[in-house]
């Protein structure tokens, strides 16, 4: 399920973290790489342990759903985050792919633009892989 309305009690960064958690849990489990990515992204967003805990509780709840951001740049950033999370455990589960496709379609990010976002994330991850290998 996708939420289309913003919850006024949450900042955009908190909603973004919740979206990442929803994707992390979309396949029914969360592994070590996914937890590490969540922790890293939480720090990048300037959020703390309390916000991460709240996001995890939301993701585990019955009402867990993606919340679609209102503006295009935030939507593209959300899709990039979702792609990274989907790939974190090395397995692209069917539920993850469906959730991603549904979100992209609802936000009208399809075709060439969607492929550009995917390619950008893959190239970014490949760059990190080469950097890690040389260290």
3D architecture notes:
By secondary structure, this protein is mainly α. It contains six helices and two strands, in the order βαααβααα. The protein has a two-stranded parallel ribbon. α1 (12-24) runs antiparallel to α2 (32-44) and α1 (12-24) crosses α3 (49-60). The chain is globular. The protein starts with a strand and ends with a helix. The model is unreliable at 130-135 (pLDDT under 50).
Task: Tally the helices.
Answer: 6
Structural class: mainly alpha
Mean pLDDT: 87
Instruction: Describe the global form.
Output: globular
Across the major sheet, the strand order is 1-2
Q: State the helicity in percent bands.
A: 55-70%
Low-confidence stretches: 130-135
Largest sheet composition: 2 strands, parallel
Rg value: 14 Å
Strand content: under 5%
N-to-C CA distance: 42 Å
Count every beta strand, where a strand is a DSSP E run of 2 or more residues: 2
Pattern of helices and strands: EHHHEHHH
Which helices and strands appear, and what pairs or packs with what?
Blueprint: E1 2-3, H1 12-24, H2 32-44, H3 49-60, E2 66-67, H4 72-88, H5 94-106, H6 111-134
Parallel strand pairs: 1-2
Helix pairs in contact: 1-2, 1-3, 1-4, 4-5, 4-6
């Amino acid at each position: 399920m996708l939420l289309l309305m913003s919850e006024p009690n949450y900042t955009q960064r908190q909603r973004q973290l919740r979206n990442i958690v929803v994707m992390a849990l979309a396949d029914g489990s969360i592994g070590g790489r996914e937890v590490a990515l969540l922790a890293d992204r939480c720090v990048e967003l300037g959020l703390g342990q309390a916000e991460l805990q709240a996001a995890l509780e939301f993701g585990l709840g019955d009402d867990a759903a993606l919340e679609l951001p209102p503006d295009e740049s935030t939507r593209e950033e959300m899709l990039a985050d979702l792609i990274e999370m989907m790939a974190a455990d090395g397995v692209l589960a069917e539920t993850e792919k469906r959730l991603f496709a549904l979100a992209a379609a609802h936000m009208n990010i399809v075709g060439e633009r969607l492929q550009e976002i995917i390619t950008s994330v893959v190239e970014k991850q490949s760059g990190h892989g080469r950097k890690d290998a040389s260290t």
